[in-house]
Design brief:
Layout (H helix, E strand, L loop, with lengths): L1 H9 L5 E7 L2 H11 L3 E5 L7 H11 L4 E6 L4 H10 L3 E4 L4 H12 L4 E3 L11 H7 L9 H11 L4 H8 L3 H15 L4 H10 L15 E6 L2
Parallel strand pairs: 1-6, 2-3, 2-6, 3-4, 4-5
Helix pairs in contact: 2-3, 4-10, 6-10, 7-9, 7-10, 8-9
Length: 220
């Protein structure tokens, strides 16, 4: 799979140069420390430990490297984990090659890209995505809605949010439904995506990659 991705990237009119390929998280981290690539394409399912667990280690050794996670199996929880761990993008292996290249292009130029073939886990497009790029003021949320949205993005359940804010669980659910409607998303993954990309929960500041990107693939 790594060879296929390397070959396909090589066909992108010289835009990408693959500087290393590794088969597990530990050697991928070492390669990032050595090469400091502009972009790392990192599998979530690796022999030693997961790509999600590897992201903080990569950030430590190569803080400017942008990270695109991918996996063959996608759930909303995994998309949320990818957002929370500090990855710059997430794409499903079963997406089309055009989708994969789109992900590489977005992440390489400094954007965030979170998309799966399954509509329930798609965070890469739509009205809420467009609005989040314009900032948290693009869609008007009340202070209480922002407060609840942040808590949802931090993983709190409706019962936990109710206890923390001293309101009823039913009130929390009403606000949750209002947020889904206002932000035009289907589920918690969409809410979390908006919270991160609108800046309500800040993502780490990272530089955009140069015009001619270097890419390092890990067990893809």
């Amino acid at each position: 799979m790594r060879e296929l991705i390397s070959a396909m990237l090589a066909r992108q009119e010289g835009r990408y140069k693959v500087v290393a390929e590794k088969g597990d998280a530990a050697t991928a981290i070492a390669a990032c420390k050595e090469h400091a690539p502009d972009l790392l394409i990192l599998d979530i399912n690796l022999p030693d430990f997961s790509g999600i667990e590897a992201v903080p280690h990569i950030r430590k050794h190569a803080p400017m490297t942008r990270i695109l996670l991918c996996t063959a199996f996608v759930t909303d929880d995994r998309v949320i984990e990818a957002l929370r761990c500090g990855a710059d993008g997430f794409v499903e292996k079963t997406n089309t090659w055009d989708d994969f290249i789109e992900a590489v292009q977005h992440v390489s130029r400094g954007d965030h890209f979170f998309r799966s073939r399954g509509a329930q886990a798609s965070l890469g497009s739509g009205a809420a995505d467009d609005a989040s790029r314009r900032g948290p003021g693009a869609i008007r949320l009340s202070p209480r809605e922002k407060e609840i949205l942040i808590l949802i993005a931090e993983g709190a359940s409706s019962k936990e949010i109710a206890g923390k804010l001293h309101i009823g669980v039913g009130t929390v659910e009403t606000h949750r439904a209002s947020l889904l409607s206002k932000l035009k998303v289907r589920n918690v993954a969409g809410l979390v995506g908006y919270a991160f990309r609108s800046g309500l929960i800040p993502l780490s500041a990272r530089r955009s990659a140069s015009t001619k990107e270097k890419a390092s693939g890990a067990d893809l």
